[in-house]
Amino acid sequence: MSVSERDEVAADVENELTLLSRYHAHAQRAGFQLDRSAYLLLGRLELEHPLSLKQLAEAFRLDISTINRQIGALLKRGLVDRVPDPDGGMARKVEATALGLEQLHADRALGRKGVERIIAEWSDHDRDELRRLLTKFNGEIEKYDGNSWPRAGRTS
């Protein structure tokens, strides 16, 4: 493949990712209980808990003030609690509450139904290929960024 063909492929992939982000943000959020930041924070806290604000800021590559504001909103809704550091540190940590996990799981189920609706007619091979390529793509981003993301069933 020539350089210009590789550039064209990269441009097409970037465009399709932009569209995917748009579709996911628009269509998938309808009916959800959680906004995007709450969904992402609770998802991380489900897999790694408890975490400090600093750890969350590092994981999300956000300023700690942004994380503090987002966690504050979740605290007000009863979706997270501040807890003592289980390792005995002075700083308090954050963990998801049962209500937070309940809403996360309900939203996740809605998201899965939305995806299933779109790929219902796909072959098993195409479904597996999409999963494989998305996992590979995200893995390459994490490797490039030096910021791995935990997945259910495996450690970070």
UniProtKB/TrEMBL annotation:
SUPFAM superfamilies linked to this entry: Winged helix' DNA-binding domain
Protein name: Putative MarR family transcriptional regulator
Gene3D superfamilies in UniProt: Winged helix-like DNA-binding domain superfamily/Winged helix DNA-binding domain
Domain called HTH marR-type: residue spans: 10-139
Single annotated GO MF: DNA-binding transcription factor activity
Organism phylogeny: Bacteria, Bacillati, Actinomycetota, Actinomycetes, Mycobacteriales
Residues forming coiled coils: none
Domain of life: Bacteria
GO BP of this protein: response to stress
